[in-house]
Amino acid sequence: MEGGGRPPLIEENRDSGNHTVEGILSGKYNRDLRRSSGTETNPDLTPIAECDIPIGPLRFCDSIAIKNYVRTLYLGVDPWRRDNHSDQIVNVSVRVWRKQGCPMTVSKRDDEAGKLEVNYSQLARTISTAFETLTASRELAEQHALHHFVEILWREISQRAVDNDWKICAMHIKADLPKATHTGDCLSLELWREPNLGDANPKLNSSMVLCFQGLRLNASIGFHAFEHQAKQRLIITLWIDTVDGGKPHGPSRALLNHIQELETVVVKFVETTIFKTLEGMGNELLALVKQRLGDSFAPDMAPNLRLRIEKPLAVPLADAPMVELYRPWIRPEGLGSVEDGQSGKKQKV
Questions:
Q1: How far apart are CA 314 and CA 232, in angstroms?
Q2: What is the dihedral of CA 138, 75, 154, 44, to 10 degrees?
Q3: pTM over 0.85
Q4: How far apart are the C-alpha atoms of 94 and 176, rounded to whole Å?
Q5: Fewer Cβ close by (within 10 Å): the C or N end of the chain?
Q6: Is the fold of 63-204 the same as that of 215-349?
Q7: Domain 63-204 has CATH 3.40.50.11260
Q8: Is 337 helix (H, G, I), strand (E, B) or coil?
Q9: Are 251 and 244 in contact, with CB atoms under 8 Å apart?
Q10: Do residues 262 and 292 lie in contact, with contact meaning Cβ atoms separated by under 8 Å?
């Protein structure tokens, strides 16, 4: 996906036999969990694949995208949690998919942008309108501005889609803040959503994902004694899927209050603890993040976690070995057990 995003894997709905965005958003890990537990409710929606070409039905759909549209956004605070009256750079990427069977066909005789139901100029203007709508109200801009912007952009695109009959079946919005993290490439907020245009509840199938991307930290980690003679660089990415379902005061807003705290927790843990394996470090770190977030959400509204750890120096002829761990907040029954990262006790998964 654009800007290092994570395009989805798509599954087929077992009951209806139709491909839905619930399936589009869920990914293979979540699909396996849901099928093993015998339930299709409360799916985990974190996309997991990394490529520009989606796997599944979306690869047969036409799409239009705007990549890395750069503007500034007033967030109210800086990475040090100080009141700050300067704007921050925000990088926005948007992609919309047309419904399968609705290709963007234009004959050579009518080869003009005005003949297209949806084109990239319309999409770019919509992004600009969303920025103008947000910045028009300073009070609105100060309160969870990143979340507000993504929601406003979603509404603007949805309205244009209705007015111009875009026939879109899925939408991805990604907003990157490269100056919002001390140690990483960027902080990003991603929205995957099915428009369901014309429905009574157009935000039914939704995934809002907060990502700390590419945190570069020094850690004492390795099997061998010589690896602990000096700390080595790790690259850590943490995804927190809030699965807010479009609720106006869902977990994604509460989560944004913890941005600086979460980065501090991750940095302190990685740089002050000693591990032999990436898996051991990852399990402990996820348990710690879950503990810190635990009081912020109701059990049925809590986010799911995904953690990637890369160790560039470990394999000389490769960029880096990598492990990626996924932990759903509410574990389905009947999927065995794992060892809790902190207590060492067995938990059902």
A1: 9
A2: -140
A3: no
A4: 12
A5: C
A6: yes
A7: no
A8: strand
A9: yes
A10: yes
In tens, the pLDDT along 114-145 reads 555 667 888 898 899 888 887 776 555 555 67
Structural domain 215-349, CATH architecture: 2-Layer Sandwich (3.30)
Name the token pair of 56.
């599944």
- The C-alpha atoms of residue 156 and residue 126 are separated, in whole angstroms, by 6
Beta-bridge mates of residue 241? 209, 304
**Which residue in 88, 85, 196 sits closest to 149, CA to CA?**
88
Phi, psi of 120 (to 5 degrees): -70, -25
Q: Provide the CA 96 distance to its chain's centre, in angstroms.
A: 16
Beta bridge mates, 175: 92, 189
Instruction: Convert the pLDDT of each residue in 12-52 to its tens digit.
Output: 333 333 334 333 333 333 333 333 333 333 333 334 334 45
CA distances (Å), origin 279, targets 252, 276, 312, 331, 349: 27, 9, 15, 19, 17
Domain ranges of the chain: 1-60, 63-204, 215-349
